[in-house]
Amino acid sequence: MEIDRAIKESSDRRLQTKYNNAVYVIQRAFALYEFEQVAFSFNGGKDSTVLLHLLRAGYYLHKEKINYSNGNQPDCMLKCPIRTIYFECPCAFPEINSFTYETAAAYDLQLEIMRSDFKSGLESLLKEKPIKAIFLGTRIGDPNAVGQEQFSPSSTGWPPFMRVNPILDWSYRDVWAFILTCKVKYCSLYDQGYTSIGSIYDTVPNALLSTADSSSTKENFKPAYMLSDGRLERAGRAKKISSKCESTHVLSNGMDNTGAHRSSFLTASIIAVGDEILFGTAEDQIGATLCQKLYATGWQVAHIAVVQNDVDSVAEEVEQRKSRDDIVFLFGGLGPLHSDVSVAGVAKAFGVCLLALLPEGITELLHHETLPVPLIKCRNVIIFAATNICELETQWECLLELSNTPLVQMAPFISKHLSTMLSDIETAQVISKLRMDFPDIYIGCHRKSRAGPLIISFVGKNKIRVELAAEKLSRRFHAGAFCEFSCD
Ligand SMILES: Cc1cc2nc3c(=O)[nH]c(=O)nc-3n(C[C@H](O)[C@H](O)[C@H](O)COP(=O)(O)O)c2cc1C
Ligand SMILES: Nc1ncnc2c1ncn2[C@@H]1O[C@H](COP(=O)(O)OP(=O)(O)OP(=O)(O)O)[C@@H](O)[C@H]1O
Ligand SMILES: [Mg+2]
What we know:
The protein is 34% helix and 18% strand. It has helices spanning 2-9, 13-32, 46-69, 94-106, 118-128, 172-182, 275-279, 285-296, 311-324, 342-350, 389-401, 424-437, 463-475; strands spanning 38-41, 83-87, 110-114, 133-135, 151-153, 162-164, 238-239, 250-251, 267-273, 300-307, 327-331, 354-355, 358-359, 363-366, 375-378, 381-384, 414-420, 442-447, 454-460, 482-485. A hairpin with a 2-residue loop joins strand 12 (354-355) and strand 13 (358-359). Helix 2 (13-32) crosses helix 3, helix 3 (46-69) crosses helix 6 and helix 9 (311-324) crosses helix 10 (342-350). The protein is globular and about 80 Å long.
């Protein structure tokens, strides 16, 4: 079975784990219900496309098990003619409609087209058909996922059935890793910058994938799998933000419906190379300082990692980060000692040899009069020779002063922090919902002690949106439930 083979042959351990868990859930559902009692809710979106192929794999493995216990050979060409529900809406993108129909035909899906709303459509379908369980491509982070598990009975007020969510714990990145690893077809809109697809009236390409510069008249977009921060997958879904500006739909990433950008994000990652940090004998202060410096420069740090002084560990980490982030900073493991393998690791990640101990063909030496040796830049990976914060300060300043510095100053982050004595239980659901309404704003919670106040942080690039998110939260509770808090 090609999907199962592609995943097993891939070297992506995380994807393999996600795949195994999802296929396990699917096999359990096939064991619990008759084949006529299950249905697949398919809308041509990326998540339901992933689910389709997982269902095919799960069904194949389920059949294989049964055949094996009967002494039969598994059928490699096995189809999965599962009952498939598609709620077709006149406001759907034509690309989504045609992809759904073509895919259903290609995989022998038994398509039931519904033209009513979800609830009444399901009510009439369940009266006619013996459906007991429905597979959905819902993922944590979807507005409707709050409180759901892999097997979740339908909500009160809905007809009774089991919602089966095999990819509930998959991230945006997992979804694209699966699609690209298995090389399955997906709706063409995702190649045009759409990252989550609603209706033609409320969905535009995700502005975070825009490649437009001030000189070009037409805006182009990178494909959906290039979005580095999956939390912003719904940034192309329109929201009406306030009754005061009725005429303007503001997209949740801070772009208005004229296509004008209000904010832009570039992401960075930091890799520390150091066995001592992993042994716990040394503390990584450089990483924390770099995070502060990048934040102050308007860059979003997407990832920080500590790896061993080992060529493969460095190479693996650099390989992953260099394609996900705009810039990667690496420090530690530089020099002539046996443990100084960072440069070799970078060369391996780019698949090049070392020339005079530097990665061949991709190295740029960043000279600055203050520095005794230049900084090393390999494409978007910058290697700091700093061994303490003081040296980092110097190298950072030099990097910023270079005429060709890769560290462009970005719009600064704006933050606001609220503190409350309300309990987690009282606030959890409201905050989860708020995060869906403000995908462009980071909304995080932390406590300094169990009994102390809960601090809710709002961080973004658009002051109005940050204020609005904080105000919206306060308005959901009694006056005085929150007070502004300074984290400095
Ligand atoms: C097959 C199916 C079953 C659903 N079951 C429920 C349910 O039990 N409870 C509920 O509140 N919404 C249910 N919904 C609605 C979804 O929660 C959600 O509104 C829908 O998938 C649209 O997602 P979107 O807002 O991301 O486009 C169901 C939708 C479908 C297609
Ligand atoms: N019109 C629909 N018909 C059938 N199932 C649907 C429909 N809309 C949503 N669903 C179900 O709900 C799940 C989550 O919906 P969602 O809108 O997030 O689509 P998706 O497949 O996740 O694609 P994307 O997030 O990129 O828009 C889908 O995977 C599908 O199982
Ligand atoms: Mg989705």
